[in-house]
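Progress note, project year one: complex with zinc ion.
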Amino acid sequence: MPALVLLAAPASRAQAPTPSSSADVPASQAAGIIREITEAVGLQPRFELRATSQVDNAAAVVYSGKRYLLYNPTFLAEVNQAGHTDWAGISILAHEMGHHLNGHTLRPGGSQPEDELEADEFSGFVLRRLGASLAQAQAAMAAVSPDAGSATHPGRTPRLAAISRGWARATAQIVASTKAGAVQPSAQPIALAPRPTPRPNAEAADAATPALLARGGSDAPVRLVGQLTFRNNPEVPFYLTSALNVVRLADESSSDEDDATRVRDAEVVGRLRRTGNAAFPFVLEDGQQRPLFVTPRGDVYDQEGQRVAKLHD
Ligand SMILES: [Zn+2]
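Model obtained:
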């Protein structure tokens, strides 16, 4: 049954994502995925697909002059489960194929961030060709990629943007060759659930305690996910909440509650809005001044291109 689901027409998967099981992804299923991907991009698979527990997740490697695509079937099943869609595992395999097809495995040395973004873009392209929505194409990366980048891998935001670029490139091709009115998969990007952010200092940790409540009648706790520091006013910290509001906290000394139940007022002074633009995924609006533009790294620019603030942990 699970094998049939993945080998069925992509359109039916897009409409009715099946509940993932915790069972490993069988080899026949992975082979079917590879066949679908190579047909979608019009290439022959010039590598051997191997299910193995020798790798933790998946890898494109060349061994004794032969190309292999290695994957851990348990990992693929876990990704499907974490991403709530079988498209998640497909995008992992597509990503590894992207390494082979872009020639990354022919160079000495390991992963580099640019290679990862190329492979991500390829996976977005392939998943759109197979009929996935943008959110489905991004599901695996949203679930497994760490927020912060490393020496070998970019952080989650640029990787999601790379998938979006590939997805959009395929959409442009498909729309150009499809008659008007044909149903297209949704271009809505994946909605990211906020992750707990490690607090770098005691003051911020204090501010993030559940005792912090929003002003204005609502008793919903406000969770702080970042801090915003303006270059011309670095002493006054602003905080970003999980609802993307920018808040300033009232001075602690103004509160006369005892410490255990202390409620600090949070004044909302602005809001981050998603733009869908990869270079500036957010715009910061405060309702009065002109908008500020936020890069994936958290640098905040004004309309003249001056860096005016930094969004950080
Ligand atoms: Zn990779």
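The pocket of zinc ion is lined by residues 95, 99, 111, 116, 119 (CB under 6 Å).
Confidence is low (pLDDT under 50) at residues 1-21, 202-221, 252-263.
No further modelling is planned for this target in the current period.
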